[in-house]
Structure formats: C-alpha cells, structure tokens
Amino acid sequence: MKVGGNNNVKVEKEIEDISKEVVGRTLKRALRLLSTLQSKDGFWPSDYGGPLFLLPALVIGLYVTGALNTILNIDHQREIKYYLFTHQNIDGGWRLHIEGCNTMFCTAISYVSLRLLGEDIYDRCHAKCKKIDS
Q: Where does the sequence pass through the membrane (predicted)?
C-alpha cells in the first residue's frame, strides 16, 4: 500500500489467527503514520473544498438553541475563530467557497458567528470588515 508517496505503510496479508503481537505491531505502525501526518498544534490538516457558510451556520444555530458553550468548549471555539480568520479575505470579506469571491451572505454570517464566539467589535475582524463598507 502506498500512502503519501512513500512505501512506509506495510499491509500484511490475511492472517488466520490474529495474535496480540500482530495487533500491537499494526497499531504501532498506524500510530507512527498518524503522528507523521499530525501538525504541531495537534490536528490533522486537510483541505475542505465545500461551502464555507456551514461552520458559521452551526455556530449561529448552537447559539440560538442555547447550546453553544455546552457543545463547543473554549478550545473548539478558539479553533473555529482561527479557521474563520484563516479564510477571511484581505479586504475583510468571506467567500462562498475557497476559490470564490466575497459574498455578503458569507461575510455577514461569518462576522456574526465570530461575534457570538466572543470577538469584540474593535477586534481584527471588525477592522477588516469595516473596509468593505468604505
């Protein structure tokens, strides 16, 4: 089996009797592979090519139902803010998908979700978004 352009992943042929040693060896290889793919801050990065309005809609929905802080702990909320700021365009807006142009819909719900997650009106989000009105 070839993963990531190298041949470091070994897949054993079907084994009749699965022993502790085989399971242990397999788990060690799996952990080694996952640890090489894991980023320094602990997650496994990937490219999400879908619409960028789904996460803000989730945040808004959780807030409206009163479950925001129950479902998303402070670390989750920080990572969501990081994700949203990472996908904010230089001019302050957000787009429908990674390669698209800014849309008012995505800009509005992303801004609202950041505010619901505790970003202050004078934070970096507002400063960039204000440029859109100018």
A: 52-72
